[in-house]
Amino acid sequence: METATPVQRKVTRPRADALRNRERIVTAAREMFVEYGPEVPLDEIARRAGVGNATVYRNFPDRDALVREVVCSVMDRTALAAEVALEETGDAFEALSRFVHTSADERISALCPMVQGTFDKNHPDLEASRERLEELVGELMERARRAGQLRDDVGVGDVMVAVSQLSRPPAGIACAGVDRFLHRHLQLFLDGLRAPAHSVLPGTAVTMEDLRQA
User: Fold this and answer.
1) Is residue 187 part of a domain?
2) 103-156 pLDDT, tens per residue?
3) Is residue 59 within 8 Å of residue 25, measured between CB atoms?
4) What CA dihedral angle connects 50, 46, 62 and 79, to 10 degrees?
5) Cβ distance 95 to 144 under 8 Å?
6) pTM to 2 decimal places
7) Per-residue b/e over 202-213, b at no fewer than 16 CB within 10 Å?
8) Which listed residue, of 10, 88, 180, 205, carries a Cα 20 to 30 Å from 102's Cα?
9) Residue 194's beta-bridge partner residues?
10) What residues does the HTH tetR-type domain cover (predicted)?
11) Do residue 41 and residue 73 come from a single domain?
12) Same domain membership, residue 140 and residue 96
């Protein structure tokens, strides 16, 4: 009795135009979530992305799927900023500063209202993006700490909270209205991170786990 040879199935790759449409949807959703919040109508996102509603639902069957993709996208782009800062910036504290300014431009502040939604916060894609970001930011901070440039009483969570809060406009003020102040205030924050510390911080260094449990 002969054993049947397994049939080799050809792996179907997404077409280039389909990938571009997906990226346009994620980019448009990210922009509109920042401007209007995570409840913005999906047809408005489709309109900004320049695609039909059917294309949005073909890529993302529901709002939770789109929100999760946007959260992952923001974290991945922020992690890339940390990676580039590590590779291209020689001075340890300057690398951390470069990351802080770039991550603010990625609008990581938009994550806060989105992660309070109903979707699965322990989804494998989210876990992977979160772990990569935390590891890279931790590496940036540890390098600055070893160089004697970063105070000892701050953690990854402290940096991410500050970037998120400082890049989020006050209620009733458009994002564009505060953009010209953003990097000024981030620099004030960075100066406060430098060693030697000039004050004692209340509490202990904040970790990402502290933020998840808050």
Assistant:
1) yes
2) 888 777 666 556 555 567 778 888 898 899 999 999 999 999 999 999 999 999
3) yes
4) 70
5) yes
6) 0.75
7) eeeebebebbee
8) 205
9) 150
10) 19-78
11) no
12) yes
